[in-house]
Specification:
Blueprint: E1 4-6, H1 17-27, H2 33-41, E2 46-48, E3 51-52, E4 57-62, H3 72-79, E5 87-93, E6 98-102, E7 111-114, H4 131-137, H5 146-149
Antiparallel strand pairs: 1-2, 3-4, 4-5, 5-6, 6-7
Amino acid sequence: MPTTIRPFFNEHRAASEADIWKLQGLLQVVLPEDYSEFLLKYNGGYPDPCGFRDGKEAVDHFFGFCQRDGCLWCTFFMTRDSLPDTVLPIGVDGFGNLLCLGIAKENRGKIYFWDHETSESVDGGPIAESFSAFIDSLRAVPPLPPAALDTSDDSSGNDTG
């Protein structure tokens, strides 16, 4: 199933070549072509399907330039003291963990997962060799097993069945 990108709900705006040039100038890098094309076409948004790592993780959204609900600039400036300068945050899961794009010569274009609670995993190796490969690898998140959905409270000791 090919991945589709749904736009942000509030005031989704298009990206421009000027946005990309400004970011590249700030970072002093040339962004990988596949990621630049994604920004120009979608400027962030919600992927569907969104699961990665065999559906154990899910992308909530990819950041875009000046998006109210997922601003690439804001996230970059808020995380620049926490993340290595070899990566750019480009997306987030539902728990605040970041997806990052390698921007240094040695890791250019590779995708990394950064756990915000442990501040680890960027150095643990890439989860995809390119942005395009990551997008192509997204799959549906499998449904939770019935036991995980059970909301009954068995703490009283009473048998309700």
